[in-house]
Structure formats: structure tokens, C-alpha cells
Write a structure and sequence with these properties.
By secondary structure, this protein is mainly alpha-helical. It is 77% helix and 0% strand.
């Protein structure tokens, strides 16, 4: 219920920002910047609510499908919304565009109020394990279910056993040491203790360290190539119309297709995320190597047919976009799989921490790319991108095998 309420609240905040934006003059840079900052803050917090809801309603077997739907529709929304609002701004004006945007946020806020409080997916709330006959109720993490197994598929049994065990432990400690009862109430602010408890569990969850290193690095080289290769081709004579069509429309479409394909693969029984990630990360590495060779050819053979190099560069961009879609879906699914190892109250925090590391990794190199290109040149920058695309492959190879199986044993 909390995730549903948060989704409604932050859609309402988006609505307020959009309404305020409709009254801002287009040349008021400071006000526009504040509005965009507020929109991004609310979007980030809403992402936490949506991811928490997904962790709550999806079973282990449905993580691949759930992440596919989220990633694909997110990309479709960005593509259609961005192009649609830009076109609308051209044919109307600033006030009308932001008023329509506010109306869209109002519709999503109303939609969020009618979301069911429980899972709408068959079998998500109460699914019998075929091997151990253990209830896989998503109200409890896998470690909690192993600690309090039962033949009956009722969440109340878990809660009663768990609470009884905690009460017994507290009672025994109090009987052994009467001062412990007082110490329970004198250890500081309960909310502060809860925050530190959540942070401790997030850090100590099995697989967190491996996955944090991977998600920090896996998009660095890719984002550098996708952001800078189109600009390089434009400098080397590729027309703006061709670049807009291939890099804007075709590459975005291939990214969506790649995400959809990744979700289909993840639906197969006993699929290994590690194998798929290594495979498509290798394809991505080869594409970046090809881009590096295109830059070398442009620098060494100035009389070479530029149209051929333009075509090779565009094909490499298309290949990276497709592989990026597959990798994104598989990586987000792996992140959710590891987050399910936490207790239910910590799962959303754990996933949000991993997502924050992922975003930081993408922004880190994007922020420094311009300085690096100015200092060492484009060819050496792409040599660095090759290294950045190779490191995640090494991390994946070293990652424990059990961490990468999608299906719960």
C-alpha cells in the first residue's frame, strides 16, 4: 500500500511542477532549471516506489518479464514523449505544452489510485514450490522462508513463527540480564537505528559487492561510445538528416527490440543471466573496437572513401544499441534477483542503492568525456572505452555462478 501511495503522491508532484512550468517564461533560465531539478528529484523517488512495487508483486519466475515490460515501455515513453512534446512545442507554445504534460501526469496519478493493493499476477501472492512444497509468498525474502519453512501456504504462519522466535530471544536476554530491558530503550533514536540497520543489511546481502562493481562499470564504455561516435561522424561529413534518422530513430528502435529480446530469453527455464550478459557484452566490445578502427582509418587514410567509414560507424552504433537493450534488461533482472535476498522491508532500498550506483557509473564518464577528448584526442579516448568495456566482462567472468541464475532453486 505504501508503494501505491508514494506513486500517487509523486505523480501529483510531477503535476504541480508541470503546472508551474506552464507559467514560466521560456527565457527564464533559473526558473526552468529549478523546475527541471524538481521534476528529476520526484522522478527518482517515484522510481523507488515503482521498483518496490515490482519487487512486491512479482514472483522469482516473473522478474524477467516484469523488467522487460518496465524497460521497454520506459524507452517507448521516452522516445514517443520526447519527440511528441518537442513537436507539440513547435506547433503550439510553451504554456500549452506544459499544460498537456500536466494533464498526462494527472492521468497517471488517477491511475495509481486504482492500482490493486495486492498482486494482480496469478500465483504471485501464493505459489507452491514444486520441489520442496514451500510457500513462496513474496511477503518474505528467500532467507526468511528458509529460516521459517512451513507446508501451509499462509503468510501468517511465517509472521507468527518469526515474531515468536524474536519474542523468545528478547525474553531470554531480559531474564539473563535485567539491565538489557532498559538498554533496549536507551540505544538512541529508533528511526536512526532503522536507517543504519537497513544500510547494514544492504551492504551485507550476498552478491551486493559483486553487483555494485559490475553496475558501476558496465555502462561507462557504452555511454561514451554512443554519445561521442555520432558527433565524430558529424564532424567527418555525415549529414545531420542521416545522423538523426540512424542514431535517433533506428538505434532507439533497436534498443527497444534488444530489451524485448532479452526479456524473451529470460522467460526460458533455468536461464543463466551470466552467460547472456557475457555474450552480449562481448558483442558490444567488438562494436566499440570497430568504432576505434573507423577513427584510426579517418586519421591515417584521409583519402579513404568516407561513405564506407560512415556506414561502418552507423552499423556499429546500431549494434551497440541492440546489445545495450539486451544487457539492460538482463542487468536489471539480476539486480532484482539479488535484492530479493534481503528482507521485504529492505528490498526496495537495496535495489535503489544498486540503481544509484548504476546511474553514477553512466554519468561519471559522460561528465569527463569532453575533457578526456580535448586532452588525449578521440582515438585514445576510444582506446580507453575499449578498456572500460572489457572490465565488466572480467567482473562477469569472476562473478559467482550461483548469483546469476534467474530461477530459484
Amino acid at each position: 500500500m505504501a508503494f501505491k501511495t508514494n506513486s500517487f503522491l509523486f505523480n501529483s508532484d510531477h503535476l504541480d511542477c508541470s503546472i508551474q512550468g506552464s507559467y514560466i517564461a521560456p527565457d527564464d533560465v533559473l526558473s526552468i532549471g529549478c523546475m527541471l531539478l524538481a521534476l528529476n528529484v520526484f522522478s527518482a523517488v517515484q522510481d523507488v516506489a515503482v521498483d518496490g512495487l515490482a519487487l512486491q508483486v512479482l514472483t522469482q519466475d516473473q522478474l524477467g518479464l516484469g523488467n522487460t515490460i518496465q524497460v521497454v515501455l520506459y524507452k517507448v515513453g521516452c522516445f514517443v514523449g520526447g519527440a511528441g512534446l518537442t513537436h507539440l512545442l513547435v506547433i503550439t507554445d510553451w504554456t500549452i505544452t506544459f499544460t498537456i504534460l500536466a494533464f498526462l501526469y494527472f492521468c497517471t496519478a488517477v491511475w495509481a489510485t486504482y492500482l490493486p493493493n495486492k498482486s494482480i499476477i496469478p500465483g504471485a501472492c501464493c505459489k507452491q514450490d514444486t520441489k520442496d512444497n514451500i510457500c513462496s509468498n513474496n511477503t518474505y525474502s528467500k532467507r526468511e522462508r528458509l529460516a521459517y519453512p512451513t507446508k501451509e501456504c499462509t503468510g501468517q504462519d511465517y509472521a507468527m513463527k518469526k515474531n515468536t522466535g524474536q519474542d523468545r530471544t528478547t525474553k531470554e536476554n531480559t531474564e539473563q540480564d535485567p539491565a538489557s530491558a532498559l538498554s533496549l530503550h536507551s540505544q538512541g533514536d529508533p528511526q536512526t537505528k532503522q536507517v543504519f540497520s537497513i544500510l547494514k543489511e544492504v551492504i551485507n546481502t550476498p552478491g551486493t559487492l559483486w553487483l555494485s562493481v559490475y553496475v558501476l562499470l558496465y555502462k561507462m564504455g557504452e555511454r561514451g561510445a554512443i554519445n561521442n561516435m555520432p558527433l565524430y561522424l558529424l564532424d567527418k561529413g555525415l549529414s545531420k538528416q542521416s545522423l538523426a534518422f540512424w542514431n535517433g530513430t533506428v538505434c532507439q528502435g533497436l534498443s527497444i527490440i534488444g530489451s524485448f529480446y532479452g526479456g524473451i530469453v529470460l522467460l526460458k527455464p533455468n536461464v543463466n543471466n551470466k552467460t547472456m550478459l557475457i555474450k552480449h557484452s562481448t558483442y558490444r566490445l567488438v562494436s566499440v573496437m570497430i568504432q576505434y578502427l573507423v577513427i584510426i582509418f579517418f586519421e591515417l587514410f584521409r583519402n579513404f572513401n568516407t561513405s564506407v567509414l560512415h556506414s561502418i560507424g552507423i552499423v556499429s552504433l546500431c549494434s551497440i544499441s541492440y546489445s545495450s537493450g539486451v544487457i539492460s534488461t538482463a542487468s536489471f533482472t539480476l539486480m532484482m534477483t539479488v535484492s530479493r535476498e534481503c528482507s521485504v522491508s529492505t528490498q526496495a532500498s537495496h535495489y535503489s542503492a544498486l540503481a544509484s550506483v548504476e546511474v553514477a557509473g553512466k554519468l561519471l564518464f559522460a561528465t569527463l568525456a569532453g575533457f578526456i577528448i580535448d586532452y588525449v584526442g578521440m582515438s585514445w579516448t576510444f582506446a580507453l572505452l575499449i578498456i572500460l568495456c572489457t572490465i565488466p566482462l572480467i567482473v562477469l567472468k569472476a562473478m559467482p555462478e550461483k548469483l546469476c541464475h534467474l530461477k530459484e532453486e
